[in-house]
Amino acid sequence: MSEQHGSESAEAALARAYAAARTYLKGVRDVSNNVAVTQAEVRARLGTALPEKGELCEAVIESLVRAAEGALAPTAGGRFFAYVIGGTHPAGVAAEILNAAWDDKPGTPLVTPFGCAIDGLVGEWVLELLDLPREASVGVVTGASMGNFLGIVAARHALLKRAGWDVEAQGLFGAPPITVLITDEAHPTVHKALRLAGLGAKRAKAIGTDAQGAMRPDLLAAALGSATGPVLVCAQAGNIATGAMDPFAEIAPLCRTHGAWLHVDGAFGLWARVSPELSRHIQGVELADSWATDAHKMLNTPYDAGFGIVRDSAAHLGAMDITASYLVQAEGARDPSRYVPELSRRARATPIYATIRALGRQGVREMIEACCANARRMCDRLTARPGVTCLNDVVFNQAIFRFAAPGRPGNEATADALTADVATRARQSGECWVQHSQWRGRTVMRFSVADRATTAADIDRAAAAVLKAYDEAIMEPGAVA
Ligand SMILES: Cc1ncc(COP(=O)(O)O)c(C=O)c1O
């Protein structure tokens, strides 16, 4: 055997990995947000040839640590605001390490009672935290992408069953057509889920949204009124640019009246449910039929972790369940793999469990409220400067900003260029990670707060970096031509 992993080398590798993880976490707040190391450089560090012979575990870990140096964005460092990525809670990180050591795989409860039990419990906790119907069933999935897929295939199962069609047995060829009505601000992963479910991304009918990007119930009512046959409505809790929540208190009753299935992509926004103050923006979402959300975003668990939640657990199982005589089931035990697309998978509920326990319901609420308060703080800090506008109502953790050239506030093309320039300069300063994007045809700087490490001082530091970048961009010859 050429592999060199005696017990001494394994011990040394674990010790080295543990020490490197501690060092990284201790220093992550000081890591520059300007990741200068390129992918090509990392490839060169990793080596290109497939090794013929094995190496000592500790040497492998040592070279991994070196290869990652300067090549990781400090997403848990408190000043990463570009995407809704979320930091990580140390309890989750520590549990993740154990998870790997245990090689746990929550499926077939006879083999893995631990992983199966924790998966079920985490599902119950999440229904309680988000105050969703307790009879709903939960699949602990890789993230909202898979949660959206899960909700959509459960909808497909139930809607076609009602129409007398067994889609799991017969497929979609010759099936009664499902009308899909989807917010025109849907995240691309919902379109992808429709593609994967065979419902087609392009044949879905887009429902228009208001100035904040929330679905207009009058337009949904009109579309439902003219739809025939089974209908799936895809709505959203948390617009990726503005954080806007669709008006569920109006949408959900419309869907019920028409017998339509309402699926909600709530990747990050569904977590407004944990706060009495924030949940007023999301009233009625509990009336939906299925929901997708992430744990790795607002809950700050390690990647990858999320939930697909379905009110009608028979529809959930109808879409997902498989059986095989070799997969012997324990009497009365829950097999989590019956609720998700994969059979074998990481016990991703374990770090979620540890994170929720370390925070408690109160800690989860405080963490999410703090993220949202920090988004509002950034809005206050930046818009105090003439020429900077925030284009959205900051109802959750998202804000979009635009920077005008002094003396030329109405010149949109100049503001587009300037806004992109400000975001790039601010990121290159290393002080914070902000990113430019598009909103309704105009360039904006996106700002998302999803990291528990972010403090008010981090916001002030980031605001100072952005305003300095604005000053520099204005001063640069030609920048505001
Ligand atoms: C609104 C929304 N929906 C869905 C997703 C997909 O989630 P994930 O990347 O966790 O699969 C995201 C991710 O950014 C999102 O913001």
Provide structural commentary.
By secondary structure, the chain is α/β, with parallel strands linked by helices. It has helices spanning 7-27, 39-46, 57-68, 90-102, 113-129, 144-162, 167-170, 188-196, 217-226, 248-258, 313-320, 349-383, 412-428, 456-475; strands at residues 137-141, 179-183, 205-207, 231-236, 261-265, 290-294, 306-310, 388-390, 398-403, 435-439, 442-448. Strands 1-7-6-5-4-2-3 form a 7-stranded mixed beta sheet, with helices on both faces. A 4-stranded antiparallel beta sheet has the order 8-9-11-10. Helix 9 (217-226) packs parallel to helix 10. The chain is globular, with a radius of gyration of 24 Å. Bound molecules: pyridoxal-5'-phosphate. Residues 84, 143-145, 187, 189, 238, 240, 265, 267-268, 294, 306 line the site of pyridoxal-5'-phosphate.
